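Lab meeting, item 3. Inverse folding demo.
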């Protein structure tokens, strides 16, 4: 498994691309130590982002919820399940930031990421999977440079991670320095996974308040659950069951790809229930050989001001089932407004082959802000 391979090379597009640097997370080390090389390299950039994360959370959550969250960050951190609290303490030590701040940083990703994920089955029956990750926060627009401040701060924190145990790669992920959960990952010979934000009135902040105020720790942090699935999940069916049944802190879309023909699905989750859409079914334009998921339920039309699904569907249909491949998915993910000013990275992956490639993305003007 490598960061660059012929099957996943991008074709020439308008977008500039950069391969993402690779770091190893050694799971045999103590949770306090396993993030040290990455954090030592990236701590100065992590400091730059922290104040903006606080400002964004306060603006988006509202003063009352933000104040409650800030007052309880230390106690919140201490209640996180093993090994996440210990890892956060380790990251805090190597970054010279308080554990409460690193906890806040991880909360930020739990509730504020927008994305486009695509699954497809190629003519040989292989499942290919791609995703764009967008920041999902509409604050800090730089009128002069036509960029989002948070997106610009996140680019240098984006990393390709190999999680290893006993010298072997367990799974690979695209992530951000200082973040201990999983948003995008592949486990060779098992499954690929991406996570998309889902909007809901009973969303991530409600789950956080229940965790803090009512000590409801029966719910799973979404990105901690995905990491547990990547580390411990036996196969595609096992991962699908866990992601469908676990009680969650926040609503979400799980996009899951396997190693056999037909093994691909979108799991739409609220905190307690799930809806399953499999490959070889049709919903809102997604054809039987592929599925597209943005940040809106597949049975509803996306809002006109954020419709990435329609152009993605159109491009997949135009590309055609006979051309289904990682290259086709890359080209679709490079099409505006699927690619936009909030896009941080593109990842292409396949569980059967173990292919995993990620690039930083920059959308050249003229480009949609989101």
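The presenter then showed the designed sequence:
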């Amino acid at each position: 498994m490598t960061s660059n391979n012929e099957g996943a090379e991008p074709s020439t597009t308008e977008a500039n691309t950069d391969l993402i640097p690779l770091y190893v997370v050694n799971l045999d080390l103590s949770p306090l130590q396993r993030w040290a090389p990455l954090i030592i390299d990236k701590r100065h950039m992590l400091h730059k982002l922290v104040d903006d994360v606080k400002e964004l959370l306060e603006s988006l959550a509202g003063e009352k919820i933000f104040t409650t969250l800030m007052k309880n960050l230390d106690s919140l951190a201490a209640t996180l399940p093993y090994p996440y609290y210990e890892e956060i303490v380790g990251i805090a030590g190597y970054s010279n930031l308080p554990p409460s701040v690193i906890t806040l940083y991880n909360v930020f990703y739990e509730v504020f990421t927008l994305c486009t994920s695509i699954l497809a089955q190629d003519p040989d029956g292989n499942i290919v999977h791609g995703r764009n990750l967008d920041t999902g926060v509409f604050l800090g627009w730089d009128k002069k440079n036509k960029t989002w401040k948070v997106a610009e701060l996140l680019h240098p924190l984006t990393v390709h991670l190999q999680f290893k145990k006993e010298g072997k790669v367990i799974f690979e992920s695209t992530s951000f320095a200082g973040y201990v959960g999983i948003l995008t990952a592949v486990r060779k010979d098992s499954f690929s996974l991406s996570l998309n934000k889902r909007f809901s009135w009973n969303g991530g902040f409600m789950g956080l308040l229940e965790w803090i105020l009512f000590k409801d720790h029966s719910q799973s942090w979404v990105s901690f659950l995905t990491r547990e699935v990547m580390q411990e999940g036996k196969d595609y069916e096992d991962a699908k069951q866990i992601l469908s049944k676990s009680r969650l802190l926040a609503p979400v879309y799980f996009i899951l790809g396997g190693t056999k023909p037909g093994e691909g699905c979108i799991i739409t989750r609220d905190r307690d229930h799930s809806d399953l859409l499999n490959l070889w079914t049709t919903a809102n334009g997604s054809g039987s050989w592929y599925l597209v998921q943005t940040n809106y339920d597949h049975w509803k039309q996306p809002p006109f001001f954020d419709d990435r699904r329609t152009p993605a569907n159109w491009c997949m249909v135009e590309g055609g089932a006979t051309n289904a491949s990682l290259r086709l998915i890359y080209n679709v993910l490079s099409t505006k407004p699927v690619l936009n000013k909030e896009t941080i990275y593109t990842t292409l992956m396949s569980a059967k082959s173990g292919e995993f490639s990620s690039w930083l993305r920059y959308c050249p003007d003229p480009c949609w802000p989101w």
